[in-house]
Amino acid sequence: AQSVTQLDSQVPVFEEAPVELRCNYSSSVSVYLFWYVQYPNQGLQLLLKYLSGSTLVKGINGFEAEFNKSQTSFHLRKPSVHISDTAEYFCAVSRRNQAGTALIFGKGTTLSVSS
Amino acid sequence: DAGVIQSPRHEVTEMGQEVTLRCKPISGHNSLFWYRQTMMRGLELLIYFNNNVPIDDSGMPEDRFSAKMPNASFSTLKIQPSEPRDSAVYFCASSLLAQETQYFGPGTRLLVL
């Protein structure tokens, strides 16, 4: 079975500051890793994903994440946040090489960017 | 290209009533997922289909919940009878069977009074 832990439920930051949202996972099998963003009253939008290859993946809106296999982590980072980045962020995993399987989500991290 | 379409977007009903949520996946996608989002439990899988066949319904809370996918372009999630604890946002997502990325609909916000 897989599980995802997002270590911070809320992260308040000031505009233009850097931010890191932490995600750890547990799995007995190899997994794919994802970050999704949810803006208020909207569905989930894919930010980025790690499937294989380079452990540093870049996504939309200037976000990036680094896969660390030894620490079973997939932290999300942005060097300078904007007010518009205020949203809920979800880390998720799915089983590798098993297409058509469900995502297992973390509880989410609320990023609040203020001026 | 249209994304995943869900209807209704909002539903308010009274306890004991039947509720039907609808989902139209992205054209060509052959995997469809139903998730539920609540404050207490976060995002959790209810059921998913591959090629219209239910693969895993272990997340369906109880017999009051049922889901169908009669064809590749339509799925329903039914709650009968509904209870206040069913109040949540219900998301439908779709993907290509050979790909990992799931695309989410806008969700249906259900309130059971």
Provide an overview of this structure:
- The complex is a heterodimer of chains A (115) and B (113).
- Chain A is mainly β and 115 residues long.
- In chain A, 0% of the residues lie in helices and 56% in strands.
- Chain A contains no helices and twelve strands.
- In chain A, strands 2, 5, 6, 10, 11 and 12 form a six-stranded mixed β-sheet that branches.
- Chain A is globular and about 45 Å long.
- Chain A starts with a strand and ends with a strand.
- In chain B, strand 4 and strand 5 form a beta hairpin.
- Chain B is built from no helices and eleven strands.
- The mean pLDDT of chain B is 94.
- With 113 residues, chain B is mostly beta strands.
- At the A-B interface, strand 5, strand 6 and strand 11 of A face strand 5, strand 9 and strand 10 of B.
Order of helices and strands of chain A: EEEEEEEEEEEE
Share of β-strand residues of chain B: over 45%
Percent helix range of chain B = under 10%
What is the largest interface, and how many residues per chain?
A: A-B, 22 and 26 residues
Termini separation of chain B comes to 36 Å
Counting helices, strands and paired strands, the structural category of chain B is mainly beta
The residue-averaged pLDDT of chain A reads: 92
Low-confidence stretches of chain B: none
Global shape of chain B: globular
Seen as an oligomer or otherwise, the chain set is: heterodimer
Overall average pLDDT of chain B: 94
The coarse silhouette of chain A is globular
Category by helix and strand content of chain A: mainly beta
What would you say about this model in short?
Chain A has 115 residues and is mainly β. In chain A, 0% of the residues lie in helices and 56% in strands. Chain A is built from no helices and twelve strands.
Task: List descriptors.
heterodimer, A: 115 residues, 6-stranded mixed β-sheet, 4-stranded antiparallel β-sheet, 0% helix, B: 113 residues, 55% strand, globular
